[in-house]
Amino acid sequence: MASKLSELQSAAAQASKYVAKNGPSYYKQLMEKNKRYIKNPPTIESCQLLAKQLFYTRLASIPSRYDAFWKELNSMKQVWNKRKEFKNEDYRIAALFGVGWVVECYAWFFLGEVVGRGFTFTGYYV
User: Fold this and answer.
1) pLDDT tens digit string along 23-79?
2) What is the DSSP string of 63-109?
3) Transmembrane residues, as ranges (predicted)?
4) Cα 122 to Cα 114: distance, rounded to the nearest angstrom
């Protein structure tokens, strides 16, 4: 256990040295590359103004998102009403998407469990 701790400490020291050496140049490069997104002067007031603009912009987008939701729901109702005209291929495609969705949900659950345990594989998954 002590050897792993010393290895971890040396790795952390190397990472710290790397960040100390390359961090400022990376920061300058990043800021130069994205300077069109920077609000000058960078004051608390300008940050508060941007936060308010973001909030009210998102608030203003609710009606269009509401309309898009009802449009999507109506298209799903039309598909449901035409279900008697479906062929076997249509059912197969729907089943394929359904199975894919279930597999994706399980994969996210599994990944969350692994991350929650500190990236260790134990228990039922072995």
Assistant:
1) 899 899 999 999 998 888 889 999 999 999 999 999 999 999 999 999 999 999 998
2) HHHHHHHHHHHHHHHHHHHTGGG--HHHHHHHHHHHHHHHHHHHHHH
3) 91-111
4) 9
